[in-house]
């Protein structure tokens, strides 16, 4: 049986840990060739090693800072030289600042926007240019967040950046009209990864892990692989008629009400 991603050349950013790593592994299991990108070289090596155990030679690692124009351009070029083109670009890398907005500095705010929003824009820009030239369509995908749909817990710039990602994807989908290049994003709920470790450490200290996990109707946290499965769907041809959408993968958090139960 051919895999669901057979023959597809993909880029995944933020691939050194969490959701990005889980996605690289799911893509490879389904027959994709992947350039895994991150600023964290140690984690990236581990991802490549893990993927090689599934399919040798299907993944290469590439240092890439998504906030840097040249670095992103090189990343997309690498995919084309290594795997003969690009079919999927998953702009997943992201960072967070948690705190009260009056404590946040302009430097932190700008950095969050630079990585979370400009990073997605750059990935899509350079991936689109190649995909359009190839003329075989493609899938542009980003990781937004439930924090971009409703208020985040304590993260002004992060929530604002993720709301921006959601609308950025809609505009990209529209501007890609007629190219067979689709653009969508995923809005994860609370997933245990490197990014949320400080949150989990705090809830553990307070002994409220179960209580916090139960803020959604599914009554638990999500796993990185549950986001990766959604990414797999949106990246693959199974989602050929899904375009310009935000898919919440959050156990129902985005549509829940505190007094529903
Ligand atoms: P993570 O910290 O495990 O992974 C994020 C990765 O992005 C890291 O490997 C990090 O090195 C990389 N990265 C950071 N800055 C970068 C840069 N400038 N260039 C390239 N790579 C960079 O966290 P995660 O939870 O797997 O996060 C993946 C995405 O999911 C992020 O966009 C995040 O905002 C989003 N998200 C996460 C959750 C959650 O609960 N974990 C919820 C909603 C959305």
Please give a structural write-up.
With about 260 residues, the chain is of the alpha/beta class. It has a single domain (about 10-190, about 225-250), classed as 3-Layer(aba) Sandwich (Rossmann fold). Helices cover about 45% and strands about 15% of the residues. The chain contains eight helices and seven strands. It has helices at about 20-30, 40-55, 70-85, 105-135, 155-175, 195-205, 210-215, 225-235, and strands spanning about 10-15, 35-40, 60-65, 90, 140-145, 180-190, 245-250. Strands 3-2-1-4-5-6-7 form a seven-stranded parallel beta sheet, sandwiched between helices. Helix 1 links the parallel strand 1 (about 10-15) and strand 2 (about 35-40). Helix 1 (about 20-30) packs parallel to helix 2 (about 40-55). The protein is globular, with a radius of gyration of 18 Å.
């Amino acid at each position: 049986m051919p895999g669901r991603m057979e023959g597809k050349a993909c880029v995944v950013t933020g691939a050194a840990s969490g959701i990005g790593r889980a996605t690289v592994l799911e893509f490879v299991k389904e027959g994709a060739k992947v350039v895994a990108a991150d600023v964290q070289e140690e984690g990236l090596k581990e991802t490549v090693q893990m993927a090689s155990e599934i399919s040798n030679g299907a993944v290469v690692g590439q240092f890439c800072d998504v906030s840097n124009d040249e670095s992103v351009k090189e990343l997309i070029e690498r995919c084309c030289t290594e795997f003969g083109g690009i079919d999927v670009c998953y702009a997943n890398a992201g960072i967070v600042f948690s705190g009260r907005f009056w404590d946040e500095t302009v430097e932190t705010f700008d950095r969050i926007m630079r990585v979370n929003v400009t990073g997605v824009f750059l990935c899509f820009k350079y991936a689109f240019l190649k995909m359009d030239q190839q003329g075989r369509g493609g899938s542009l995908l980003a990781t937004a967040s439930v924090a971009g749909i409703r208020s985040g817990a304590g993260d002004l710039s992060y929530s604002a950046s993720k709301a921006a990602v959601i609308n950025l994807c809609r505009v990209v989908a529209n501007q890609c009209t007629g190219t067979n290049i689709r653009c969508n994003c995923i809005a994860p709920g609370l997933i245990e990864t490197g990014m949320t470790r400080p949150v989990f450490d705090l809830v553990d200290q307070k002994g409220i892990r179960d209580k916090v996990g139960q803020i959604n109707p599914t009554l638990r946290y999500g796993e990185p692989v549950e986001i990766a499965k959604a990414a797999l769907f949106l990246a693959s041809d199974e989602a050929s008629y899904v375009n310009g959408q935000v898919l919440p993968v959050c156990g129902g958090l985005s549509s829940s009400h505190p007094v529903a139960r």
